[in-house]
Structure formats: C-alpha cells, structure tokens
Amino acid sequence: MVLQVRALLRELRDALPALLGGRRAGVAAALLAAAGRCGSAPVQVDAARALSSALAARASAGGAAAEQQVRRAVSRRSDLQSRAAMRSTAGRV
To answer: Cα-atom radius of gyration of the chain, to the nearest Å?
Structure first.
C-alpha cells in the first residue's frame, strides 16, 4: 500500500491546488487519509508537505480564508510528524 500511496502523491502533487480549489477536494482528502492509514512516517510527512504546498499556492492566489487553511495544514503536518515519531520510538522499546 505504501508504494501505491507514494505513486499517487507523486502523480497528484502538482494537481493538488486545483483539486482543492474545484469540486475535487474529496480526492485530496482521500489521498491524505490513505497516507495516514499506510503507517509509513515518510509517506505521511510527504503527504502533509504536499498539502501544505498546495494550500500555500492557493493562499498566494487567494485571501485570508486560504491563509487559515495553510495554518491548519501546518498544524496537521506537525501532528502527523509527532505521531510518526511516537510510532518509531514505540517500536524500539
């Protein structure tokens, strides 16, 4: 599953801003959910970065609402990184 999620991230990374702006935000949400379920910290970090970049691209084209989305994405990214760190240290104990 990790390989498929990575492939989807690579394929859709450039299209994420358009997906979020149109009526395709569910595609982006499903991709991020899959990254969260795969259990691979690097994939989760890549997904959070892709989302953050997409929201930043939208923010540069949009206004205050887009800026709020970026803040939420950054917060979500740090949550994913914290969970990934906890998982990796839990396996070592």
So the answer is: 14
Kindly state the tokens that stand for 68: 């709020």
What is the token pair recorded at 21?
Answer: 């702006």
CA atoms 36, 38, 44, 48: torsion sign: negative
The pair of three-digit structure tokens given for residue 27, joined into one six-digit string: 């595609």
Q: Quick one: tokens of 61? A: 């084209």
* 15: number of Cβ within 10 Å: 14
- Residue type (1 letter), 52: S
CA 83, CA 86: separation in Å to the nearest integer? 5
pLDDT tens for the chain, residues 1 to 93: 889 999 999 999 999 988 887 778 888 888 989 998 988 899 999 999 999 898 888 777 765 565 677 677 777 777 877 888 787 776 655
Give SS3 for 62.
Answer: coil
